[in-house]
Amino acid sequence: FSKGGSSDPYVKFYFDGKKIGHTQTIKKNLNPKWNKSFKLKLKQAEANRIVRGNACKLEFRVNDEDAFGDDPMGTVTLPLPFKEPSSTKWYKIGQGEGSHHCKKAEGELSLKISVIAKKVLSMIPGHSLPISGGHIRIDLGWEMEYGRHVDLDTSCVAVSSTGQILMDETVYYGDLVNSNASIRHSGDETTGAGNIQGSDDDERIDMYLDHVSPRVSALYLILTVSTSGKTLADIRSAIVRITDMGSHTSLGNFIPSLVGGHTALFLVRISRSQNQQRGWAFTIIGETDATARDFGSLIPEIKGYSRDIVPNIKIDKNERIAIMRKGGTIRLKDY
């Protein structure tokens, strides 16, 4: 790093030509130690480029700070994906052409680079992703449409190993906590007045899978429109986010209005893994119903989606569960 016996070096960090950050300047030092770390989260388009084999570049541009204009001292350029294991290594300062290169560059730069790849579930019905358990959160947010109140409801319906609906393990607007508080519902929101960007969602379900009763084989997340005369297509602002809170990783987002003029949407099933003693499988359903206003009218469908985990499940196409709402009514002949 010497240009006449002394330097005031610092490093600029670039990803694919865009500046990400820089270190502080170490004055009058030929052997600087910055101990600076940078964290970079790739956007989907950038990650897709890497998956397709089009590597992006990391650049570490070393400069000598000067009052009349900083002088380039050389560059270390590395491609992504970075195929070497995470370790600290010395990289030779490269020589090259251009304003940020130095023809007489000498020296080495000590770097440690870690690349972490996370598998993202494709939002295609039937696709499944193993999850270890932990804390899963479902957020529902929407805004009022043209000043009219519209009521959306999220429910988490529990199914046993014999295919029975476990109402004491099911949470919805009428029963906010299951038997041991491992599944919790925030309560019914009837106006859609929250912040749909996530800071103040209208309804939320928290699931602590490690503590869910062993009686439960599967949990179904269902979204319904309870407002008469309205369908999911009428609520264009609505969004459902599902997040692994342990890693703060998104498991998926749903835009309910995209399914059209339906009143119910089966979001996902979270079922106990069949291949290991612990662990769960997160499976996209993405199917709809055109008339149901609550999960109680969808019992045959719920059991139908359980055939692979309860092979001999009995399904009665007329089975219903009456879901009572304050101020609401039900017709006994329907049950």
Automatic annotation (TrEMBL):
Annotated C2 domain residues: 1-95
Superkingdom to which the source organism belongs: Eukaryota
SUPFAM superfamilies given in the database record: C2 domain (Calcium/lipid-binding domain, CaLB)
InterPro entries: C2_dom, C2_domain_sf, Stress/Tellurium_Resist, TerD
SMART domains the UniProt entry points to: C2
Designated name of the protein: C2 domain-containing protein
